[in-house]
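Throughout this chapter, every protein is written as a compact record of paired, labelled lines. The reader may check this reading against the record printed directly beneath this paragraph:
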Amino acid sequence: MKTEYRIFVGVALFLIVAAVVYGWWTDLSMGGIEWIGTTALALSFLLCLMCGGYFWFVSRRIDPRPEDRLDAEIADGAGELGFFSPGSYWPFGIATSALIASLGLVFWMWWLIALGIVCVLLSTSAMLFEYYTGTRRTAEH
């Protein structure tokens, strides 16, 4: 996790420098600060800093992974990485539900927004519990 937090903190530092330079540059060239771009860069800085802080917090509590050790060999990363679903249709259902909700936002139809949110919650729950119920239920659960 040390690699990840270093990347996010590095991007955050770049973004805060870019926000300051952007604000200064627009103030110099346009006679006033362009607030939308400066705010977007500042909020992006905060988002990257938040992600970097989370990875730093996690990296202190787990054992170093092979990616984080300088003396690691390629073979140290071998083995099972986790369980990945071989084929699931639920991500398509989540995307379709999000499309319904976003179309409701675009056209400001409250009933379509509500339908989309309900569909997103149902399809997300279905994907979460896909391997706990039904025909795909695994033996260890």
Summary: DSSP finds four helices and no strands in the chain.
